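Appendix B. Chain record.
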Amino acid sequence: MNDTIGSKRPDPRCVFEVASQQAGYFTARQARRCGYSWALLSHHVKGGRFLRVRRGLYRLQQFPTSQQEEVIAAWLSLGPSEAVVSHESALDLLGLSDVVPSAIHLMVHRSHRPGGRQRTPPGVKLHTTTRPLNRDDIVIREGVRLSSPARAIVDAAEAGTGPEQILLAVRQAIQRGLVTRSQLIRVARGRGQRVEQLIKRALEEAAP
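Structure tokens predicted for this chain:
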């Protein structure tokens, strides 16, 4: 759909449907697709219906709060079609391990790293990758793009998450049918001897 819509009438239902899948948040681009100009967005901010979170990011003022909204807001700020919630943050949203992320972990392809006026949101640990994020590497949870369980586990292991948390995440993912042994081995391949050995050890301990 064209992002430069100028004549489309504003559609409040469209904005609500988009925002309701993203903990009440929506981007200016998404609002434009629903017929809202910059001037109209500003009008609703002044009127108290929308809350301007940061440049290009808004929230429905009366939408119920969510435990994940900070993660969702950061993800949207970097571009929902380019960024994914990753590493420990993905493990947390997937309910894998007991890890408590000290930052919001997001990942983008190196070619989409923020530059110019766009800045990494505060509290975000940004990871870049040259490995393509294909369909098998991404899952959708409540409208949010996350690293798949296998990718999140291996990325976290490579980034230095504690081995005990990786072992727990693998065991839980296997028990819940979120990953297979072959998937984890495939994703870990080429990540270095330490990561490959850790994943193999986790799989051995997760065996019935």
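Further analysis of this model is presented in Appendix C.
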